[in-house]
Amino acid sequence: MDVLDEATTPVLPARTIGGAWLDVADRILRAGIPATWDAKPTREIRTVTLEVAEPRPDDPQIARFADPERLAWMHANFTEFRRVRALGDAASYASRLFDYLRTGRDQIRWVIDRLAADPTRRDAVITTLEPTLDTSYVPCVSLLDFWIPDGRLELVVAAHSIDFGTKGYANLVELAELQHRVAHALEIPVGRLLMSVKSAHIYEPELEPMRTVVAASRRAAVR
Fold first, then answer.
1. Which of 29, 116, 144, 172 has the fewest Cβ atoms within 10 angstroms?
2. Given the DSSP bridges, would you call strands 40-52 and 11-14 parallel, antiparallel or unpaired?
3. How many structural domains comprise the chain?
4. Are 41 and 204 in contact (CB under 8 A)?
5. Model confidence over 64-109: pLDDT tens digits?
6. CATH number, residue 68
């Protein structure tokens, strides 16, 4: 497979979210092409889909190799109803999911109720986009689609861009947490987590640190 093929439309299966994070990072490091995001140079692969068989928020690889401060920052983004200063005072994911457009609409509760009423539904879909308010910042994770195809709750996610150097693992942890939350409420097992990302990238200053992380994870895997 040549570099162009590796940089475009791969589907990357993994057993865990930690494995998915490291596999995507490895692909970016080996085959990523030059790009920019907010005028900052990156390496990216395009339209990648992660297919995680056993998504667990308490992932041992992420616990070992990820930055605890980044994990804490993303957890706050998904749980605290506040403006996020680092994102230009944009609404947090928690606000978007549990108080959509500041109307009190709990989208996760809506998903649970919809699937509880009819587990065959294919339209338990919610969004983090708030078009009338998102004038500058557009959330990276934009769509969450829950369904129960084979008795297990699957989550299909769409994202325009994910940084797999410093944030991607934290996004995966929080999405897995949401998936487990909905499955627990429905009293069914958790199935796959699928995440389609238009631009999976690493910022240039993070390339060498990520090479170190990926190499360390590979060494740990063969012991």
1. 116
2. parallel
3. 1
4. yes
5. 999 999 999 999 999 999 899 989 899 999 999 999 999 999 999 9
6. 3.30.572.10
